[in-house]
Amino acid sequence: MDIIEDVLCFGGRQLRVKHTSESCHCDMVFSVFLPPQAEQGKVPVVWWLSGLTCNDQNFVTKAGAQRVAAELGVAIVAPDTSPRGDGVADDPDGAWDFGLGAGFYVNATQAPYDRHYRMYDYVQAELPALLAKRFPLDIERQSIMGHSMGGHGALTLALRHPDQYRSVSAFAPICVPSQVSWGQKAFGGYFGGDESLWLEHDAVALIEKSGFDKPILVDQGAADSFLQNQLKPELLEQACERAGVALTLNQREGYDHSYFFIASFIEEHFRYHGRFLSR
Amino acid sequence: MDIIEDVLCFGGRQLRVKHTSESCHCDMVFSVFLPPQAEQGKVPVVWWLSGLTCNDQNFVTKAGAQRVAAELGVAIVAPDTSPRGDGVADDPDGAWDFGLGAGFYVNATQAPYDRHYRMYDYVQAELPALLAKRFPLDIERQSIMGHSMGGHGALTLALRHPDQYRSVSAFAPICVPSQVSWGQKAFGGYFGGDESLWLEHDAVALIEKSGFDKPILVDQGAADSFLQNQLKPELLEQACERAGVALTLNQREGYDHSYFFIASFIEEHFRYHGRFLSR
């Protein structure tokens, strides 16, 4: 494990770490922010999962979350969004919505993606174990959040591992990947035609069958150009209502899909997670 | 004048604007943040001048300043750092510290730079006039700040136009460009050997002769790798002491030259300017 960047930020340390991933069979880079409180003892962890085309740096440089994380005493871990490197298969046409930068937080079953594209295991199991060993993190206190494809990742991981994540939130998540073109392309490529696998990674389908009993916080920009065709929060809302899940869906008039939207409301999300993580 | 981006951020509007500059004889792009208060009437302006290699976007996407600007009701204008475009001469070797991205906020007198490299006139005169005409800005209330090369720009503009800028601050400014290699390369290229021109754009030299009677706020990271060879805040400190200028020089232990440093202390700088701009 190599620390390739270590910069002071709001009194904490913003690190960038390179390591060889056993899940993804390649070198991976992730970012972790350690708040000042990590000098005194273990701190809880908020996971941030990024969207299509991002890597571990977008959130770290653009969201401004370190300020409130330093105040609350929580760490932030931002993984990459896909395996990378010379041996890693990309979309055959180099598209931005599949392959590199578009791992969709699943374990692929289809060649040539099945060897490296194992972001689900990487984020849910490998990274927490590595982090607990190497950093002053209290891995018993994790919360998870993300944006767009990463909002899908946060919701599906939380729904499938309710004991691992104390709370979950998302900005503009892909709520029903099996019913929209981004998700259909990804799941078709990573899983092939096996629809049962698709539904295991579809937040709306999981809510309908899971008995999830935690609240969910979602912020959605009303001027987001992907709202109608790719995100579909109304289907998440209907599923939560049917399943009795307490969803807070903040519709933000005039906001788009960008990090300017995320930055505007990130403090509220951190304070939300902070309440679950402090106990 | 074309608005090429218009995004909601902390209740205000983050704009990117393209226009043809009369000073620089080329198309230029600048960013302006209008706080929510600009919907009700004119708001004061804080100028942000960026450092070497930057354009109008670095500060806008990385510093997180819109939050406090929205609270205080001040606009932020972030110009580019040099003229750009096909006809604009660059460093002959394509170096990052001269030419494109390195205009040093001066009016060049030497060919081939003298036609386009007129960032001084552009920032001090052309842009304020344009902004006053097109946006709800109270151009009688301006403050100025910047980082590194832009810290040099902010200091020298404020020292030469004390009636224009109510307050001035800088992060890790190049305090004595005529005595360090970045500044010597830039001034040699833009001005040639005429040392009197060099000293008109050297903050320490200006302080010693100017009779400037406002306070100056500077934050400097103590772990900044450019501190000793390029920035030299100790010479600014000595000059201010000799001239009776009230300098607040915050040495920030462990901080480097990056936007993580700027983001950590930007709120303090905005609150500082806000006090001068509210009256």
TrEMBL record, chains A, B:
What processes does the entry annotate via GO biological process terms?
A: formaldehyde catabolic process
Cellular component aspect of the GO annotation: cytosol
Q: Which GO terms describe its molecular function?
A: carboxylic ester hydrolase activity; S-formylglutathione hydrolase activity
Q: Which UniProt key words apply to this protein?
A: Hydrolase, Serine esterase
Question: So what does this thing catalyse?
Answer: S-formylglutathione + H2O = formate + glutathione + H(+)
Q: Does the keyword Transmembrane apply?
A: no
Q: Which EC number(s) are documented for this chain? A: 3.1.2.12
Per the Swiss-Prot or TrEMBL record, the active site comprises: S148, D224, H257
Q: Name the Pfam families on file.
A: Esterase (PF00756)
Answer yes or no on keyword Oxidoreductase: no
Enzyme type, top EC level: hydrolase
Q: What does this protein do?
A: Serine hydrolase involved in the detoxification of formaldehyde.
Q: Which family does it belong to?
A: Belongs to the esterase D family.
Would you tell me the protein name for this molecule? S-formylglutathione hydrolase
Kindly list the organism's lineage.
Bacteria, Pseudomonadati, Pseudomonadota, Gammaproteobacteria, Pseudomonadales
